[in-house]
Amino acid sequence: MASSSSAYVQAEAFPDGVTEYVPLRNKKYDMRKPHITEQPITLKNWYQHVNWLNTTFIIFVPLMGTVSAYWVPLHMKTAIFAVAYYYFAGLGITAGYHRLWAHTSYKASLPLRIFLAAGGAAAVEGSARWWSRDHRAHHRYTDTEKDPYSVRKGLLYSHIGWMVMKQNPRRIGRTDISDLNEDPVVVWQHRNYLKSVIVMALVVPTLACGLLWGDFLGGFIYGGILRIFFIQQATFCVNSLAHWLGDQPFDDRNSPRDHVITAFVTLGEGYHNFHHEFPSDFRNAIEWWQYDPTKWAIWIWKQMGLAYNLKTFPQNEIEKGRLQQLQKKLDQKRTTLDWGIPLENLPVVSWDDFVAESKNGKAWVAIAGVIHDVGKFIADHPGGKALISAAVGKDATAIFNGGVYDHSNAAHNLLSTMRVGVLRGGCEVEIWKRAQSENKDVAAINDSTGQRIVRAGTQATRVTQPVASADAA
Ligand SMILES: [Zn+2]
Ligand SMILES: [Zn+2]
């Protein structure tokens, strides 16, 4: 379409500050050269598709650690240290890489930034600069081809496949990381990444356990390698599990989901549907009882004067989003129910034809100008066969609405499924209009699927004003 393509051109030309990703360590990748990912994987070239550096760090090294753990006894002090160091590295990713650098959901003082960059290096998941660039692309292009870890390519791909296999740099959406290039901590960590990893992920745990209680090997295996393995697998779940398992209370158009299991695994990053809707909020869990230790840590740092400018979305906007999603679910549910043929789609029948058809054996009853075929219902009528049969071929508006019995909302609902026509010049239109002017609840509004919303007590057959019945006359 011409209009949408011109909108696309406009969007392309819009100066949104995106920059080509410039690697600070290696030579700039030549974008003109064909990339290996443009060739299909075959038996001859599969090893060229593998990112061997990443594979070594996230598969081979952890495997070696797991095997060697068999011969290395685990000491209590080393176990406690490994768990504590796990949280340190985890917060480096969740509070540092994710909420501070990728989303700038708060500001951190220099000592806290150094602490978080050190923790991030201990987790061995790439530099903060590289990680944030991909993560911003993930938010901007969620579930599309430009999403670096789109769950649409499979759970395993979003978890680990995107790192184990080489990525075409042209495919990943471009993002603006000029702010990160101005943070000296981010730039230093990026330039000295390998050194940072060796020191923070392996040397520190080994020396800490070795010098403090003589367990060098345990520190290396449990505090280093196995702890890296666990923190990697846990935080990778933000890209996989958080896009696969759970509810979507804020928006169900894309894959992000909320689940407490994901939250437990990822230091509170499991409320991912909320997070994708409100990404610059420093919280992922908004209820006090939900598990979000990353949020608690940021809050404590704020009390210590290390973090400031914590961003939150207005509660009004959050509740609006929640309500709209709820409404959408209601609309979907509404479409699955039988509400009868819409009044405007019913054939118009004259009074004489109505009477004639009723005499010819049709069990037609007119109520509020709407003709209903009650034939199949006569035997089941709770008020007995006689009353309903007596109404056939007649206008039963008054007796249905209180003349004999003031029928329930459920009865009006059931009646609406029996509609077959409207009376020409019947009082339906007048009654509908009058009901609307008298009762503000009765508005002919449609839901997002185009269906008329019929609230309790507002069926067209319900007459709110007492109608003079034949008996009263
Ligand atoms: Zn996500
Ligand atoms: Zn995010």
Overview of the structural elements:
The protein has 473 residues and is mainly α. It folds into two domains: 2-308, no CATH class; 343-438, Flavocytochrome B2, Chain A, domain 1 (Roll), CATH 3.10.120. It has helices at residues 2-13, 46-49, 52-68, 76-102, 110-123, 128-140, 155-164, 178-181, 184-191, 193-213, 216-236, 260-265, 272-277, 293-303, 315-335, 351-359, 385-390, 397-400, 409-416, 428-438; strands spanning 107-108, 307-308, 348-349, 364-367, 370-373, 419-423. The strands form two sheets. A four-stranded mixed sheet has the order 3-6-5-4. A hairpin with a 2-residue loop joins strand 4 (364-367) and strand 5 (370-373). Mean pLDDT is 87; it is low at 469-473. Residues 138, 242-243, 256, 272, 276 line the site of one zinc ion. One zinc ion is lined by residues 138, 242-243, 256, 272, 276. Belongs to the fatty acid desaturase type 1 family. It catalyses: octadecanoyl-CoA + 2 Fe(II)-[cytochrome b5] + O2 + 2 H(+) = (9Z)-octadecenoyl-CoA + 2 Fe(III)-[cytochrome b5] + 2 H2O. Its main location: membrane.
Q: Can you count the beta strands?
A: 6
Counting DSSP H or I runs of 4 or more residues, the number of helices is: 20
Domain unit count: 2
Bound ligands, named by name, code or SMILES: zinc ion
Mean pLDDT: 87
Helix content: 40-55%
Class from secondary-structure proportions: mainly alpha
| Shape annotation | elongated
Low-pLDDT runs of 5+ residues are 469-473
Q: Give me the Rg, rounded.
A: 33 Å
Distance between the termini: 65 Å
Strand order of the largest sheet: 3-6-5-4
Q: Tell me about the largest β-sheet.
A: 4 strands, mixed
Topology as a string of helices (H) and strands (E): HHHHEHHHHHHHHHHEHEHEEHHHEH
Strand content: under 5%
Subcellular location: Membrane
Family: Belongs to the fatty acid desaturase type 1 family.
Protein name: Acyl-CoA desaturase
Catalytic activity: octadecanoyl-CoA + 2 Fe(II)-[cytochrome b5] + O2 + 2 H(+) = (9Z)-octadecenoyl-CoA + 2 Fe(III)-[cytochrome b5] + 2 H2O
